[in-house]
Every structure is written in structure tokens, then in C-alpha cells.
Amino acid sequence: MKKIRLYSSLLLFVLMTARCSNYLDIIPDNVATIDNAFTNRFNAEKFLFTCYSYLPDPTSLSTNPAFFAGYEMWMVNDPLTWPYVQGGANQYAYFMARDGQTANSPYINSWEGSAGGVDLWTAIRDCNIFLENIHLPRDMEEGERSRWIAEVKFLKAYYHFYLFQQYGPIPITDTNLPVSSGGTEVAVYRNTVDEVTEYIVGLLDESAPDLPVIIENTTEELGRITKPIALALKAKVLIMVASPLFNGNSNYVSVVDNRGIALFPKQYEASKWERAATALKEAIDCAETEGNAQLYTYNGTYVLAESTKQKLNIRGAVTERWNSEIIWGSTESSAMLQKSVAHRQVGLNVVSSHVASVGNPTIRTVERFYSKNGVPIQEDITWDYANRYDVQVAGASDRFLIREGFTTAKLNFNREIRYYASLYFDGSMVYGNGVNTENTYSAINYTSMKSGMISGRFSNNLYSATGYGVKKLVHPNSVVTNPTFTAYEYAFPIIRLADLYLLYAEALNEVKSGPDEEVYYYIDKVRHRASLDGVVESWATYSSDPTKPLTKNGMREIIHQERLIELAFEGQTYWDLLRWRKAQQEFTQPVQGWNVIGKENADYYRIQTVFTPPPFLIKNYFQPIRNYELGLNSNLVQNYGW
Amino acid sequence: MVKINFLFVDKMPQVKLATIVGLLVLLLSGYSVEAGNHLLSGVDFQQSDFILKGRITNEQGEPLAGVTIVLIGSTRTVTTDADGTYLIKATPGDKLSVSFLGMKDQIVTVGNAEELNIVMEVKGHELDELTVVAYANQRKESIVSSISTVSPSTLQVPSSNLTTAFAGRLAGVIAYQRSGEPGEDNASFFIRGVTTFGAGKKDPLILIDGVELATDDLARLNPDDIESFSILKDASATALYGARGANGVIMVKTKEGREGKAQLSLRLENSISAPVSQVDLVKDPQLYMNMHNEAVKTRDPLGELIYSNEKIANTGKGNPFVYPYTDWQEMLFKNYTSNQRANMNVSGGGKVARYYIATSVNQDNGILKVDRRNNFNSNIDLKKYLLRGNININVTPSTEMVFRLHGTFDDYNGPIDGGTAIYNSVMRTNPVLFPAYFEPDQANQHTPHILFGNYGSGNYINPYADMVKGYKEYNKTLVLAQLEVKQKLDALLKGLSVRGMFNTTRYSHFDVSRNYNPYYYTVGTYDKTTDRYTLHPLNQSSGTEYLTYREGQKDVFSTTYFEGAVQYGTQINEKHKLNALLVLTSYEKRIGNSGSLQLSLPYRNLGTAGRLTYDYDSRYFLEWNFGYNGSERFSKIHRFGFFPSIAGGYILSNEKYFAPLKNVISMLKLRASYGLVGNDEIGNSADRFFFLSEVNMNNASRGHAFGYERGYTKTGVSISRYSDPTITWEKSYKQNYGIELSLFNKLEIQSEYFREHRKDILQVRADIPATMGLQATPQSNIGEVRGHGFESSLNYKQTFGNGLWVSAMGNFTFSQASYLVYEEPSYEDTPWRRMQGQRIGQPFGLIAERLFIDDFDVVNSPVQEFGDYGAGDIKYKDINKDGVINSFDIVPIGFPTTPQIIYGFGASLGYKNVDFSFFFQGSGRSAFFISPELITPFVDNKSLLTLIADNYWSEDNQNAYAFWPRLSNYAITNNNQQSSHWMREGSFLRLKTAELGYTLPKRWTDSISLHNARIYLSGSNLFVLSAFRDWDVEMAGNGLGYPLQRVINTGLNINF
What we know:
The structure holds two protein chains of two kinds. Chain A is mainly α. Chain A is built from 22 helices and 14 strands. Chain A is globular. The model of chain A has no long low-confidence stretch (mean pLDDT 91).
């Protein structure tokens, strides 16, 4: 009997346990999972935006390597400066330029999404998730669905391209591996240059037909991918792989993976230029005819001096919101960029630290701009190249470019209009900043850059390291007052028409046996907008090398310099110099500027070396994959030299 | 009162079940039950009565008045008078029941004699012979698992934080303390070291009166309130806790009232506490400025000097506000502070009810100075109140109800960001840039606010302003209510009992900060001739004179816990003892501010556990335990786990053949155990449900904007965890071998060797390359750790006839655990980077050879890939000889960061009224790193440590073995790498406590009707022996934080 009692007690326990096992089921239904993202159009659109959200921010001084890493511009090396610059203490691009890149902890690491890099593999994974699931929402029209698919395919191609540009050939990730994968499954190989090119081009070809030619609903959709963008990107991919860095580059033939596959092509192939040229023509035609794109010129109603208007033609091509020239504009805010580079000006009693005046063009960058005759200053027979660092007093003829009566370097005189549109310097006139009503000279402000002057080294950290600043990236309607800065935001151009024109000229010059009218036509279109004569005429009249535009090699140099000037400070120079394999000669030049601690002309106008860049070696043409990743995947071969 | 007659119960099984269910329900609803067949039927037979008389005394022969004497079987009851005498009518053969408060009940048989004197013994406490084990008590002798018990009085240290007493006093516990800030001074402690890794729980399960609580709650316990303190270490001891016991269990039982008259005990302490050591900063402003200038020049010969010769010459001599020099430590910190503690408890009770009521008040003060111009206190002032009531009621002879109510309440007032932040900000402030505050200039004679100093645009840290600008208050409350019912069911089955316990815990915490925004000033103009300056305001627009207010963190949670147990014990033939226990537990916690949907869901555990022990003739012991429990954290397939263990023991000294040795070896016991325990608190607390993915459908940083004016925005979707239903708890396979030895009945030695193999440790997958594109790296039960160790404790006690007594104790713990399986890249070419095979907590770093002597040395050495470097910077060893120093050259260096050895020893001796005791504690085999970032002088205005000023590489003194590399005014990443240059050994031996006590003579105390009074003087952290002297070595890498405190304490303990 006692046993029975005991057993029944035990039974009771078991019963209680059994009854209570539901006690641990606490998860309610409808906890959000990834399936929720594709239940309807509303949520799917969020995922579409997610795919877009990985677009690297082209306006960021901190994470877009192109501003600093090519020494196109520089800034004060002072941690107290950085809080006023986008990125704050994390000036990755600047650090990369200052300290050099390492394979241990690379800056702008887009491979892993650290140190300023966007995690582009995750971006690609999200694009794949989108493409795998977008058939699910039922409340969508098929037209819209195919447009979204095309957009995401484009983004997937662009993310591949971005990695390609940074790292050279990469593993193509067309479909996602399951999350639970491990071991050899995840040990992917890098594809070859040609495979990656074909893959990206293929994706773009698939996406283009389903993309809109122009954005109708500009209020809600400007910034979304269009057909001209897809064609332009295709052209940019093709010209990149036709360029010397990728095409017949003997340095990288040794990059072979553990299967023995060489990642870079062994031979130069001229046909790659032809293919690029074809793609560029297609892109330009589509942009011009279907997308209504044309080079921007100022069409404001203010009565302005001719030179002021000419300057605005250039400045506006970048800073005029969604202007006619923009093929692909970024929807990232440009406010912080403007705030970082903007200038304090005389006439406003601005002592505020709300503009940093960093991002300072180096003497080398400044000297790239042509003389007013449209030829390089060292070639211009009318330009006093030898004495360019002497000073001169500005006369009345220059009054809308340089403050009348102001003494400044000869270097700043008699330059092409893009010089005055793109740069500010000691004594430069700065149209805008809220003063745009009428053309009264006295109302227009100017910069005064010597130490202690309002635009110069007024405070200890916020001043130009070289004596130059970038005017081109600040919209005339952005206003600095004491103590605020209000940015007039614009869509930073990722690709604009002038870019395509110059690329086309470049490609054509390579394709043809010698430059011809077709080549000149596209480069001269850009020059005319910059109030310059055509290349042949300019060189013939003013250059010490008057036949330069007539040879293929000479023309190549002219096109290169034209690009460096036209697209200066737009994040193109860095990639161009790499692609042309000119970085070794350009990125090793000392960073120079005026003696910005000088207070007097005699003291200020002395060239100072602000910084000597770390050595630039062949390996630096591509970014290293962090060593850690190579440890995880032994099939991955490191880039040459790292 | 409800009575249920059980006599019919045997008839039908169904009815029986119903009855038992009913019984339990009744028990839990607070009814008491009395078994029917237990009722006494009074039969009064009157045969040859006579008057029995006698005297009842205690053991000392003192008469006891009021003793109750009942003639069993009758209603006859008498009590003793003042002389302890009684008279009762009785018959030979009758049985008398004698009972008195606080004395053991006696049953005496009446003989033929007419006088019967009875001596009553004081009721000993049951727990003296019993050890607290999981869910029950067990006879000490029969314990075969590894459980160490500590006498609570040894935990009595001059501190209001119990955890600070652990190191060296608890065998098998690795403990250390890193901060001395009141409220933040918990020691870290691990049972048998750390044998797991990752983000999960590593420290033990803490049970106070059977209820799971946090380290803070353990820290608040008052040693005077502790009845027993046990540490459950091996699988056999912890298997009943199943998936919660792998890291060991600390079990504390609070005191309960004992039968007897009310006893009041009072303890008052006042202590003076001062930092054990303070980091030395350079107090010479000229030296500071010259070195700062040097830092600029040595890196950049063209660099602009920070301080002019004029400033250097005048600082410390000229006007103290124009040429400021501030010793910030002096400015902010007092040399010492005083803390008070008081506690009181009253206990006692009668036959029916017993009570233990305790209360304590602790006041801990910080060592921060307060500015008299503010009318609020910004120093740390932490008051901790504790209230505890334990009431036991014997509802019926077989039913006991225990009611426990416990509350701890913390009231804190202190600086806005806490004390440690103040210490850190002193380190980040330039001593010559600005004064803490200015004396008003002409213009500010009537300015009502304090004119704090600052520089530049007023964005520098002024630690004085930060300290005095406001104050933070927090209030913390923890309330615990518990009801326990114990029912003996001897009627059902002799030796059977059931027990039910219900507990609820309520916690709340909130903080509020109030502060003004300091007005900062700098010197505008200065006229040397008149020595007058004017002040220039730096933040006219942002400063405020009025206080602003900020609501801080608010935390609330509540838990409920239920425990039901059936226990059965029997004895067959005197020799076979059998005990069985079956427990059902359920636990739930709900958090009010968890921050996400998934975390807001209730936390639950459910389990059954059982124990079967068998002992044969007090010689052979066998024990089998199991836990079967589950938690809501895992998917259904892995929700419940079974954790068995087995243990055996053998007491040789109870063998017959051992008898001749008994005089020397009074006890010798061997024991061993093996079993499986789990740990279900794995991973990050945010990663709760591994079987669910965590998706954020509204992640703004994954959103995007479109449109002409970027007007059309949508948030995006992100994934922070991918689902994996296979993830489950850690499993720990533990072996334990122990020997217990007692010599001459005076010396007790207990030694144990243990091994542990922990499997299924959750690890973030390490072989997932970035090309997978995962937003969150999946985790998996991959890791394995193997640990082993040794612990030993020794106790010695001897009393000499002349009133001298001596006791000594010592203990030693060594534990080491290594990664057996650790997923990581293969490191084929650099095998020294593998974690696998290394000890847990093993630091990795570069090997620093020395500093570069000069530029020639730099050129001729391998390239170092950590940014700029040159002569005087740290030169690292090229391990793989590839001519480049990078992450490939990182190797394991030094000991683990958690000490592998903790030991302690001490002695007490007393002679008549005086007693003295001391206790040393040591720690061995650990390493720590000085953080160069935290002490790099000049960078971010950091102060200059004397340590650096005394020994650095300079162009004049190119000492390749200097402590500090070449100065710099910006961070040199090359030197900040984790390397052997910054590694130090953490071993130390310290005089942890010493105490001198004097018990007031009996004749004095008696005269004021005190039972006992003792005054004492004690101290803690009195001195330390260590190779590292720059700050208190126990603080390790946290050396610049709030220092550990040395305490001198006076106390008074009175018992009424």
C-alpha cells in the first residue's frame, strides 16, 4: 500500500511536468522574420530601398577614397579638425593617404565593410535575397515588378563593379549560399577579369530594357536607376577593363590562384577599347536622345558679369540640383561635404567654426588647370611659368575673378575659367553665399587666406592646409553666417554627361590610328562649355608643342588632363590615375601648398611641403584583401604584392 | 484548520491520486493538514499515584523557571517555579514530557524514586551536523560530492560588499577585484576558474534561500545574517540544477530564529578608507611643459611649440590664474573618507513560531571633494539598507511554514558619470592649460556662478567642473517574498515529507541626474604691472546657472519561482540508509524594459531533479543525481535536457581495522564523482532565441531617400540573427576526486582534483568569409574546453587549557582550462596564431624586443605595418621571418588574464579576552596589459605619469629599454599594439585583513545585562607584495580607475 502511495506521488510529478512543458512555449506567432519583407508591395519596397542603401556615399570625405587617397586634396593633420569634417575622428580616406594601406587592417575595406568601407558582399546578398523573393508579393503590377528587378540587378552589378574597381577581379556571387554553409562550400575562388567583366556587363544588359528612360515622378523617384545610368555604367566598366591597369598589365600576370588560373589577362587586347567605345556611344546616345541630357549652362535670371556666368556654368554642372547634365546623381545629402570644404569670406564677419575649410587642393592639382588659353601652363608660350610663384597685384580686368587691388600669386592669374570656378585662394572672388541678387562688385565677397585673416588660419584647426579650397562643391546658395552654415543641397553627380564625353574621346583616340574630328568633337564640347577653344586651335596658337593634338599619344595626354580638370574634386581623378597606371608618378609627389602660417605676402607666398606621401608601389594599384580573410578561405588569392 | 481522514485512502487508487492532489493543493494554499491516525486519544488511568518532585537545571546547574512538564497521555501539566522545582502527580512507568524554550525536549520515565532531577541541554542547531546541498540538507558525513562550506564569520570583513571577502577564503573559487568605487566594487568570482568562452554566463549560479539572485544581491548580504554558505562545485553537487549548474553554484541560507528568548545582536562599524595606491602624476609644471614641447619637436622638428618660454617660466610662479597649474588629483580627491555600517538582528521564538529579524544600514562615501559653492553634494554617497524577516511557524507538529521577507534598498547620490569617469577625466586633462576655476575679475565680481576654466572654444574636459556641476541619484529596490511549507507525511509513509516553496522577487531601479552646464572662461587680457586679468567667456550661450534634468535608466523586473519537493528517507537494519528526493521547479522572469519584442517575452525555466543516496554502515556511500530541465531559449527539439551524475565515497576511518589509528587520523574519507551538467545562458543576452531569426523591418540606416528634394524615404530591412534551431546548451562533463582527512581531531585537510570537459560551447562561426555577405555571423555549438585543477584547504584548531586558543586556515586553488576545439582560420603558415590548445583567456600580442635605438636601427629592421614609427618606437620581433611585422607575428604571450592560482592563509589566536587574526591572500599566474592609449601623455591632453617622465626614450637618452617610447603629441599606432612591452605579471600577495578584538569582561557586561560585547579594530588591504608597483596590481589594466581602498575599521559587537 505504501508503495502505491509513493508511486502515485511520483506520478503526480510526472503529470505536472508533462502539463508544464507548454510552459516553455512563449513565442507568440507573428514574430518578424525575413518572410515578412515580401508579404506585400509595401514591405517589398522597403527591401528595394535596402538594396539601394548600400550605395557607397560619394559625398563623404571620410569613406570615399577618391578625395584624399589620390592626393588631389589634403587637410590639416589635426584631430581637432576632424570633428568638423564628415566622418569625424574616422577620416579613413585621409588616413589611408597619410599612413598608407596595410593588409592587416585596410582602410575603406569594402570587402568586409569596415574602416569606412561599405559591406558590399552583404549588399550583394541582399540583392540576391530580393531577386529570390520578389515574385512573392501579390499586390504588384508586373511592370513595376520587372522594373524593380532591373534596378536590383543594376545594383548587384554596381556593387560587383565597385569591388572590382577596388580589388581587381573578385568572386562572382550570382546566387546566395545557404546561411548554414561552411567549410569548402564557402571557400570561393576569385573569377578572372574577363569573367567578372562579362558578368557585370551581362547583368547590366539584362537590366537596361526594363528600366525607365527618364524619371517621371521626380518628387519621389529621382535618384532611382534609369536606362541611361545602366548603359553609362556598362561603358565605365568596359573602359576600365580596356585601360592599361587591367589590359595587358604585365605586373599582375603572376596573380594565379591555387588551381593555376591567372586572374588577369596575359595579353593586351585593343578590341576592348572598341567595345568600350561602342558602349559609350550607346550610353551617350541614350542619355542625349531618350534622357534629354545636355551639358549644363547657367540659365539664371540675374544680370551677372560674363566671367561670373562662365564660372557658374562649371560650378552648376555639379551643384545645380538634378541639372540637365547629371546622368546618375546621388541622393546622399551633400550638406556635410559642403560644410567641410566651404570657405569663410570677408564681408561676413564669420568666425564660426561651422565650416571647416578642409579638402584643400594641392599645388600639383592647382597647376593641372590650364592657362586662360586652354593649354597647360607649362606649355603656354604666353604664360610666365618660371615666375609663377611670384606675386602680382590684381587689376580691374580680373575684378570678378580676383579682388581688385589684391596681391596674390602669379599662379592665380590668367587661368582658365574652371580654375576660378573650382578653386578659392587668397584674393579669389566668391560669388554666392546669399549674395546673388545683382551684379554689384562690391557686394561680392572674397577670400583672404593669410594667417589671421578671416578665410585663412583664423583658428588653430579649421583652415586650409595649402592655401586653396574647393569652390566647385559648394552651391552658391549655401550660406555661411556667424554662427551657422545652411547648405543648399544638390545631387552629387556619380556620372555626368561631360564624363561620358571625355571617356568616349579617350576610347575613340585608342581605337583610331590617330585622332580625328570625332575625337576632337567630344572633348571640344566640354572645352566650349568651359569657355575654351577647341584643342587643335588652342594648341596650335598657344602651346609650345602645337602639334600635340595631332598624335595619338599627344591626344591621350590632352584627354587625360582635360578629365583631371573637368572632373576635379568629383571623385574621378583617383580612379582615373589608377586606371591609366599613372598613380606611381602622381601619388608620390609631395603635397605642397603656400606657407599658410604666413601673415605677409613675402612670407605667405613660399611653397611649402605639407606632407610627403608614403611610397606608392605597384601593389598599391589594388587594395589588399585583409589577411584575416585569406586565413578563412585558402582559395582566395591575395592581390599582387600584399 | 482542516482535517482529512486518510484511513479510507487505501481502498481505491483513483481516489488516492485525487487525495494526494488535494493534499498538495491544500498545502500550497496554506492550509495545514493533520493526519487522522495521528490524533491522540486521551485515556486517563489512575493507579498508584504519588507526588513526584524534582528540580530542573541547565547544564551549568542553574535552575530553570517556567519549564513545562506534561504527563504524557493525560492533561496534567505543571511548570517549574523560580527555583526550578516542580511537583506532579504520577505513577511509576509514566512518561513525562519536559520542554522549555531553547532547550531540547526530553521524555523521562518516572521511576520509583519520588525525586527526579532533570538537566536540560541547550538545543543545538540542526545545521551544525548538516550541510546544505541542492534542495535539501544532508548529513555532513554522507556527502560525496564536492561542496565546501564556509563559516559565515570568516566572511566578516570591513566592507559592505560581501564579494570582496571571497578571494582566498573559498577553496575552489577564483576571485579578484578590479575597482574600489562604492556600488561598483563587486569582485569577479568563478568556481574552479573559467571553463567556457564567448559571451555566455561564466560565473556561478547564485541561490539565496533557494532563489536565484544576482551578484549584487549576494554582495549586499550581511555575514551576520548568513546561516550557511556553501559552494557546490562538482557534477554530483550541481547536477540537480541541470542546465544551469555547469559553472558551479553558490548557495546561501539566511538565519532562522531558534527557540529561546529574544536575542539581540548589534554591530557598529566605522571605517576610514583611503586608496591603496594612487597613480603618480608629474607635479612639476615645467617638466610637463618641457616634455610636451619635446613631444612635438621630437616627432616634427618644424612643429609649432605648444608652450612659450614665457609661459614655462611663469607657471607656478606668476599669477596662478593666468599661468595656471592645477594638480587635478589634489583638486578633486580627498585623502580618505569614512564609511559607517550598522546592523542589528533579533531572533528567538517559542514552540509555535520562531523569528529572525535583521536590519542593516551601510553608508559608503566616495573620496571626491565637494565644492561648497554648490548646495548639493556631488560626492558619492551610497546608502544601503537591508531588511530581513524569517519567520517559522509550526502549524501542526508535522507542518512547518516558513515565511521570508527580504528587501534591499540602495540610495545613491554621486557625480553625474560615476567615480571611475572622474578618475579617467583627470587622466585626460592638461594641468597647465587652464585652472579649475577663476577668482572673479573686475567684471565678474557679482557673477553668481562659478567661473570654471577652459581653453580654446571651451570644449576641453574640466574634470572639476564635470565633478561639481551636478549629481546623479539612483534608487534600487529588491524585494523578495517567500512562503515555504514543509509537511511531514510519516502517516503515509514513515520518512516521507513534502515541501513547497513559492517566491517572488521584484526589482526596480531608476536614476535621475541634475546638473547645470558650467560656464567656462579663459583669460582675455592680463596686465603684468598691476597683476590684473580680465576673463573672456567661452560658452555664454550654452552655459546655464539653473539645473537641467535628465531621466536615466529605469530597470524593472519581476520573477516568480516555484519549487515542490518530495523527500523520503529510511533506514534498514541500522546499516542501510536510503534517501530519495524529487523536486519540481519552475522559474519565470519578466523584464519591463527589455528593449525588443523578443527580449520582452518571459524568461522561463522548468525542471525536475532527483537524488538517491545510499549509505552502508557509514562506510560506503553512493549517490545518484539527475536534473531534467528545459528553458524557453531553445527550439522544441532541444528544449529539455537530462543531466545525470554519480558519486561514491568511502570512509576508511569508520572501518573496524582503522580503530587503532583513530587517535591520529580521526577521519579519512575518499570520494569521487562523475557527471554531466549544463549551461543554458549562452551567447549574448540579446541573442535570446537562436531558433528564431531577428529581423528589423524598420532599420533607418538601411533605408534610402529619393526624389528631387530627397523627400521620399523608406526605412529598410536588416537581419541581426539568422535562425538555427539546432543550437543548444553547453554540456560539461565533470570528474572530481577528493580526500578528506582529519588529524588529531584538530587539523582538517580537504584536497580535490578535478577535470572538466566542456562541449558544445557556443561560438561565433569563424570560418565564414566576408564573401558570404552575412549581416550577422552565425553561431554554433562548436567549442570545446578541457579544464583541470586542484584545490586544497586546511583548518587547524586548538584550545589550550590556560585560555589560549589558536586556529589557522589556508587554502589553495589552481585551475587551468584550454581550448580543445576552437573554430578559427587554419593558420597553416602561422600556427602560433591558433587559439586551439591555448589556455582560456590567453592574451595574444606581438613580442616587443626593445625600442629602436636610432634611425639606422629602424632602416635595418623588418618593416612594421602599424603606421608611422621611427627611432625610440617599439621594435617587434619578426616571428615568421618574412621581413614584415604584421598580424602574422602575433603570438600567445604571458599568462591568462584571469588568475590561475588564488590562495589565502591566515590565523586567529585568542587569549582570554583578547583575540587577534590576520589573513593573507595571494594570486598567481595571471597577466595584464597596461593600456598605452590611456596613459599616452599629451595626446588628447592626457596627464603625464611620473612613471613615464622618469623613464622614456629621448634623443638625449636613447635608452632602448625605457618604459616609454619616444614622446609624441599624437597617438603612435605602432606603439599601441598589444605587445609584451605592455604586459605585466599580476601575481601578488597581500595582507587582506587583520583584526584585533577585545571582549569586555563578563563582570562588566553582566552588570548592564549584556550577554556579550566585543570591540575590535580591523583593517583590509593593508599591504601588498608584488613586482608591479605603479598602481594596485589587483586592479590590473583598470589601474587608472577608482582605486581599491585600504580600510581601517573600528567596530563594536553587542549581544543582548
